[in-house]
Design goal:
The complex is a heterodimer. By secondary structure, chain A is α/β, with parallel strands linked by helices. Chain A is built from eight helices and twelve strands. The radius of gyration of chain A is 18 Å and the shape is elongated. Chain B is built from nine helices and twelve strands. In chain B, helix 1 packs antiparallel against helix 2, helix 5 packs parallel to helix 6 and helix 6 packs antiparallel against helix 8. About 17% of the residues of chain B have low confidence. The chains are: A alpha/beta, B alpha+beta. Chains A and B meet through helix 1 of A and helix 3, helix 4 and helix 7 of B.
């Protein structure tokens, strides 16, 4: 899952980015509203973490502008505990909010829930045949037995599972799983897919040659 | 309710109304009484004058004691149709009535009681000798006094001799008290009778009276009517006053109802004055302007609180998130060190902010400690310039101090805090290879300290807010410089506490000049120098 963190306080931004990266997200960052808006419009993010008090373009303005073209889930961060700021943010199209100071664990949990809901899944466990994917714990079981996946492998499984029945192109995989700083070698995805097939069965992921991958429901 | 305005108004209303009614009623009653008695008095007096005239016109007679008055036979023969005082139809003619019992005679037979008039037979001071003896018979020829209306009591009269003896009375059995009048003409009330006492010729005393109980009754009835009417008017007045005060107070109640609905959360609400009277409109207007000020103050306060909490929460969030991150999984020593450094930076930022907030809070409470002493602004400027020289060099900004030593009374530490802040701003918001000049000068009674930079300048719309707390012209740049947004607000508080002024003049892309004006002190030794020169 690929996220964008828009936060002007460098130390705080660093902490958020590190925490989210460690949780398996591909994370991009922006230090002000202008950069944030530009990135959010150009890339397909699974969710945005947005501070409201931003230089140049405020969080509210960014949100309003973004909502003209995109429905990316947005979690707003605010240092004000006044209701009006949060209400204004939610009315502008935000999907959730957190008040600073916040717990990183809560931020991660809320982001996961946001992404899951935006993909149309109310439950945090997705069953595909004998394979169960727990989005909250980031664990996968086959026939009830846990299967160990690397971070990238899990991210790929999660992406395909969340959009099961839909064709996921290579570009989409790169967009969602790799951050802007990752080297996107073209055969990296094929390597991950073959590893997943070994662990979860050869029929789990179907390859559409020249198009992409799909998990059938 | 005892202290309510309406009740107080009502009490005043009742008081004033009662006074007016009582005064008016009393005046009316006494006027009525005077008129009534006046008519009677006039009538009695005219009768008395007739009697007096009759007495004067008596023909002179020889001296000698006449028969005592009130004896039967003193009356002249009645002429047909003659009408006399005191006579009622069907009654015996006055002359035929039995005499009054001797005990009811007025005192006066005793020589010691003789009080007015000259002695018998002697000449009085104002008239001929009093007719005595048989000449008294002539008194009988005093014509009767005509009767008045049928409802009025008939008048009576009596004539007393100089010795107080009743000489003539009509009706003869009338009981008249003989007293010595103080004045020649005097009115008196005896029981329900009104009498006039008139000193007649030859020291006689003429008393004419009338029973006035009817008039007294009528007056009493009038008094009762007046009181009844007064009470009724008072009642009506009080009711009307209550109603009117209620109407007058109603808009006030309306205002207070509206005002009571306005709480801290909806201070934007206003009292509708469009339908009010002029006086209340003024009151409503005053309340509204007060609400506006209150709203502004509240807004400023909540803005300040929000800003302060924002400024405190951000470093707090940094500390907590970095700690959480560090504790999430095993880390290297370098990672922990980095975390601690970050936390320290955030902690220092919070300390600065808390100190700034405390300084402002003290200034707001008027408790900013100013240790007054003679301060050389030039020396302070040099100190600050030396302290910030490294920063200036780092930013490639030239920093100069110009001017002469100028002294003012103030707190050296605080003033150097102000200057540090201003110069530090001037360096931070300057361009590369820019200049900062600190100038110290004296302008009349004022010491002037100015800090001029060649920076980007301040937009005109930002200048009025420049000294507001947490105000930032450009948020991004301020954040980078680690400024809390309180610096200029603190400068202003300190300068204000010194009784000075802090002003700013700025042109976009040319630079800004901050100017501090403080009351100057004469330079020590300057006067001595001047004196020496004059010598």
């Amino acid at each position: 899952m690929r996220l964008l963190v828009v936060e002007d306080e460098p130390d705080l931004r660093r902490a958020i980015v590190l925490a989210l990266t460690e949780e398996g997200f591909a994370v991009d960052e922006a230090e002000d509203g202008n950069v944030g808006l530009h990135k959010a419009k150009v890339w397909e993010y699974d969710a945005l973490v947005l501070d409201l008090m931003l230089p140049k373009t405020s969080g509210w303005e960014l949100l309003a502008e973004l909502r003209r073209s995109k429905t990316t889930p947005v979690l707003i961060l605010t240092a004000r505990d006044g209701v009006s700021d949060r209400v204004r943010g939610l009315n502008a199209g935000a999907d959730d909010y957190l008040v600073k100071p916040f717990s990183l664990a809560e931020l991660v949990a809320r982001l996961r829930a946001l992404i899951r809901r935006s993909a149309g899944h109310a439950q945090s466990v997705i069953d595909i045949g004998d394979v169960a994917i727990n989005l909250a714990d980031r664990t996968v079981t086959k026939e009830g037995l846990p299967v160990t996946l690397t971070g990238r492998e899990y991210a790929l499984v999660e992406l395909l599972a969340l959009h099961r029945g839909k064709l996921i192109t290579r570009t989409m995989i790169y967009d969602h799983i790799f951050g802007e700083d990752d080297d996107s070698l073209s055969n990296l995805v094929d390597v991950h897919v073959s590893h997943i097939r070994k662990k979860l069965g050869p029929e789990f992921i179907e390859t559409r040659r020249g198009q992409g991958y799909i998990i059938h429901g | 309710m005892g202290k309510s305005l309406r009740w107080r108004l009502q009490v005043w209303n009742a008081l004033i109304l009662s006074l007016v009614i009582i005064a008016f009623g009393a005046a009316f009653y006494f006027q009525l009484r005077r008129t009534t008695l006046g008519e009677i008095d006039l009538e009695l007096l005219s009768s008395a004058r007739v009697l007096e005239g009759s007495l004067r016109s008596l023909p002179p007679r020889a001296r000698g004691d006449g028969p005592p008055p009130n004896e039967p036979g003193m009356f002249p023969p009645r002429r047909p149709g003659e009408n006399r005082i005191g006579e009622r139809p069907g009654e015996l003619p006055l002359g035929d009535r039995p005499p009054a019992p001797p005990s009811e005679r007025p005192p006066g037979d005793r020589p010691g009681d003789y009080r007015f008039g000259p002695p018998r037979g002697q000449r009085g001071p104002n008239g001929p000798p009093f007719p005595t003896g048989d000449r008294l018979d002539n008194l009988l020829s005093i014509p009767g006094i005509p009767l008045r209306g049928p409802l009025d009591e008939p008048p009576y009269f009596a004539v007393f001799g100089p010795d107080g003896r009743l000489m003539r009375a009509d009706p003869p059995n009338i009981e008249i008290e003989w007293t010595v009048p103080e004045r020649p003409l005097q009115y008196r009330n005896v029981d329900s009778r009104r009498e006039v006492q008139l000193r007649g010729p030859n020291a006689t005393l003429i008393v004419v009276g009338r029973d006035i109980h009817r008039q007294i009754d009528r007056l009493s009835a009038s008094l009762v009517q007046l009181i009844t009417a007064g009470v009724a008017v008072l009642g009506l007045g009080l009711a009307g006053g209550w109603w009117m005060s209620g109407r007058a107070i109603q808009p006030i109640a309306q205002i207070s109802a509206t005002a009571s609905q306005i709480t801290a959360s909806n201070l934007s609400q206003r009292i509708d004055t469009s339908t009010m009277d002029q006086e209340l409109q003024a009151l409503g207007g005053i309340l509204n302007s007060m609400l506006l000020r209150l709203q502004d103050a509240f807004q400023q306060q909540s803005q300040f609180t929000a800003d302060a909490s924002h400024e405190l929460r951000t470093p707090l969030a940094v500390i907590l998130s970095h700690c959480e991150l560090a504790l999430n999984r095993p880390r290297s020593v370098e990672d922990f060190r980095q975390t601690i450094v970050t936390c320290q930076t955030a902690g220092l930022r919070m300390r600065t902010l808390v100190e700034d907030l405390l300084t402002l809070a003290r200034a707001d409470a008027g408790k900013l400690e100013i240790q007054n002493s003679a301060v050389d602004l030039h020396a302070i400027a040099n100190d600050v310039a030396a302290m910030l020289a490294a920063t200036a060099t780092q930013r490639q900004v030239t920093l100069n101090v110009a001017g002469n030593p100028v002294h003012c009374s103030g707190d050296a530490t605080r003033l150097s805090q102000v200057l540090t802040n201003l110069v530090s701003n001037a360096i931070h918001y300057n361009q590369t290879a820019g200049k900062v000049v600190i100038t110290i000068s004296q302008d009349g009674q004022e010491a002037v300290l100015s800090v001029r930079d060649t920076g980007c300048g301040i937009p005109a719309e930002a200048i009025p807010h420049l000294f507001d707390r947490f105000y930032r012209v450009d948020q991004a740049r301020s954040r980078q410089s680690g400024d809390s947004g309180l610096g200029l607000a603190i400068c202003k508080s300190i300068v204000d506490a010194h009784g000075g002024r802090l002003t700013v003049d700025s042109k976009l892309d040319e630079g800004s000049t901050f100017e501090v004006r403080l009351p100057a002190l004469p330079v020590p030794g300057l006067e001595a120098e001047l004196l020496a020169q004059f010598r």
